[in-house]
Amino acid sequence: MRNIIVLILLTIASVAYAQNDRDYIRSGNRLYRNKSFDKAEVEYRKAVSANAENPQAVYNLGCSMMMQQKDSVAIQHFERASKLETNKLRRAKSNHNIGVIFQNHKMYDKAIEAYKQALRDNPNDDETRYNLALCKKLMKNNPDNNKQNKNNQDKDKNQDKNKDENKDNNKDKDNNKDKKDKQNPPPQEQMSKDNAEQLLNAAMQNEKETQQRLQKAMQQPRKNRSQKNW
To answer: Is residue 31 within 8 Å of residue 64, measured between CB atoms?
Structure first.
């Protein structure tokens, strides 16, 4: 008897748990229709907290984020809803909205992939098909848009790389400068050395001339000191 009572209590608790997230969704939907998207977001978050595996709660949370222009977070919720959703038509809506966000940001290549995925689940969606054709046309007419998005990422990487290269180049320049200064001293030092050599040569020349005069004097005959000069 006790086992039956416990089983009944668990069943009631699970039903209340399931109803709880649906109640939050209904409350969020009312706020969403009134364009209170921030308040709707709060209710949808409560629904997700109550049941993280409810794809409708996750999808609606993505819609409230999208309406508040929180696009990157909205994409994450739509991708999550797409994985949780077993109904193809509802799953197609998540991928359609992902395509719309990428299209608004002129990321046509990613928008095209999202629209293609949506059409796989719902081939009869004319709006998705139209958006797909439009993105293909825009991408063909403006091929630089997608390149620019990639270039912006590459630019950030190249800036960091250039900073490191500039540091290395400046370091090499400083090393080369020090080496060059050692090999080629400043002109003032060269002039001082030249002057010293000139002074030394002059001193040596004077000493040589002095020695020659002394030798010449010693070679001459000496006069007799007793001889008188008349």
So the answer is: no
Mean pLDDT of successive 10-residue stretches along the chain, which has 230 residues: 47 51 95 96 96 96 97 97 96 97 96 97 97 94 65 55 58 57 42 54 61 52 37
Residue 116, token pair as written in the block: 């293609």
Taking phi over 0 as left and psi of -120 to 50 as alpha, with beta for the rest, 35 belongs to left
Report the distance separating Cα 45 and Cα 77, nearest Å: 11
DSSP 3-state assignment of 36?
coil
> Is 62 within 8 Å of 81 (Cβ atoms)?
yes
Compute the distance between CA of residue 227 and CA of residue 230 in angstroms, rounded to an integer. Answer: 9
pTM exceeds 0.70, yes or no: no
Q: Give the integer Cα–Cα distance in Å for 95 and 128.
A: 10
